[in-house]
Predict the structure.
Amino acid sequence: MKQDAARSETRELTYREAVREAIRDALIRDPRVFLMGEDVGRYGGCYAVSKGLLAEFGPERIRDTPLSESGFTGAGIGAAIAGMRPIVELMTVNFSLLALDQILNTAATIRHMSGSQFGVPLVIRMATGAGRQLAAQHSHSLEGWYAHIPGLKVLAPATLEDARGMLWTALEDPDPVLIFEHVMLYNMQGPLAADAAPVDIDKAAVRRVGHDISLVTYGGSLWKTLEAAAELAKAGIDAEVVDLRSLRPLDDATIMASVAKTRRAVIVDEGWRSGSISAEICTRIIEQAFWELDAPLGRVCSEEVPIPYPRHLEQAAIPQAAKIVAAAKSVVG
Amino acid sequence: MSDTADKPHLSRAHELDLLNRMIRIRRFEDKCAELYTQEKIRGFLHLYDGEEAVAVGVIPVLERRDRIVSTYREHGHALVRGVPMKAALAELYGKQEGCSGGRGGSMHFFDRETNFYGGNAIVGGGLPLAVGLALADHMRGDNIVTACFFGDGAVAEGEFHESLNLAALWALPVLFVCENNLYAMGTALALSESETDLHLKAASYRLSSEAVDGMDVIAVEAAARRAVAAIRKTGKPYFLECRTYRLRAHSMFDAQLYRDKAEVEAWRQKGPIVRFESWLEANHMIHSEDLASIEAGVAAEISEAVAFAEAGTWEPAEQLGRFTYAEGAV
Ligand SMILES: Cc1ncc(C[n+]2csc(CCOP(=O)(O)OP(=O)(O)O)c2C)c(N)n1
Ligand SMILES: [Mg+2]
């Protein structure tokens, strides 16, 4: 994760462009890499991530598929087993449910079932999250579900560096890696080093150093959490913000080191509260750092409703900076 | 079965009614597009521009007791079915007075009153639902038809094949209506299907099936009458492929990189409304006053709907937790 800003030139680009650059880079580096999914080619990607790649790499490597999530995800698994390095794009996590059987029962299990004779070096990318008023079937945050599954790795790039750097490392991984790109991040713009390089995919990162409370989060919620931390600073509360980056494996060491220092924690997760990754993190803190805590843990999650269409209700349903501030204040007491 | 049941009534009144219904959808959705640019409507908005003859040809043939399952491109189906325009527009605004209480938006119109079961935004997701509705009717011996609308893209989904097979295997009264508009977002049918004659796929599952010119409202209506009459008589499913075209972008986010303007223009000339209008004119079945009065009626209804939606209320955020479980339960 370390990036020596002084070392290199930076340029402005969007998260979307950073992902595109990562895909392009992978296609150039390795002839085994190809991108496959619904509307990745002629349409340019449902979030315009792959726009222009068809013209550059052709229809064999930028492969439009029919609406057959289960079918082409399975095909990606087979191609990966057979030595290719496919990037499957599942449009959004909402549609990944149609491929869940392939992901869980094939991709995640083949290595185990075959006594490690076969592995699945596959990367599956998809958009996740709410915030665009797309209503109940198009706003899920199910990355926590996938993080439940042994055999998978689950990434949530929240920054430009990670959007640019995680893909290559994921492709080099011998096992299936799922990358969740939050829909509200695609237009996010910022500076990125001209020579931005691959990054690790198993460590959490401290995005803001603080001493009074640890705010543990990932993906689209990182920016709301940083906003909350700035707000808390005005109230004299110095929050540390931990970006998980990877939901499976979870980087317990970084989480526990932060909690041991601040002695308090709030977990921020756009998934629903019940049975969520936030619950898993709380449990681990209790298991591993109970005696370090000065206060009960707090959580800010999505409300337990399907995501509603109207903006005010959608916003009320998902984590917000104000809710994070309130939760942190109540934990700090 | 009366001998007129499977024939369209080619009376002037009936034809004006068909035209009126198509224009009503078109003008309503033109308004929706405008309201979208004003940010009154948000999220995904999928318009039916060019495909009106399908909803208008099929839905009025159904009885009140019949059921409808649709997709995210369902405004036209809902309007023809009798979901009040006011309730539809209020839903698009996200207001409580909407047909789904505002919670659903453009892609999730529901209406118990008219047996309208959504508004499903998962491609292919409605087909198993339709099969289940029909299964219940079949088991109860009710003579009810479930009409299930879906696009050409859904044909590639496993749900399509599973559902057709089940409906045929169990002899369920489902009318499968494939709105083949040649594209699934930006993917042309030929890039998606090895067999582009979609009704042949249904035939392979042993469904009665036919393809019809979906730009010709009279032809669609005649086919729908045949289909519904057959389902009522046999209880078995029927597959109707309506060949049509989407004249607007897939959704408001679509830059339409995948097709030429010339292609769209050529189809526009063959659009269901111009085509029917000019046919009526050529046969002296319609006068300019008729058109003017249709347009005036529709315009009035639309402004009423806009006023209704504007005046509608935002559901208080304190009620966020509602509608997740049955009220009072849990
Ligand atoms: C299972 C699933 N996969 C992908 C999508 C994204 N998507 C929405 S509409 C669409 C195209 C569907 O085309 P078609 O069935 O032909 O219907 P049309 O939009 O042309 O009416 C796609 C790919 C989705 N909603 N559901
Ligand atoms: Mg289509």
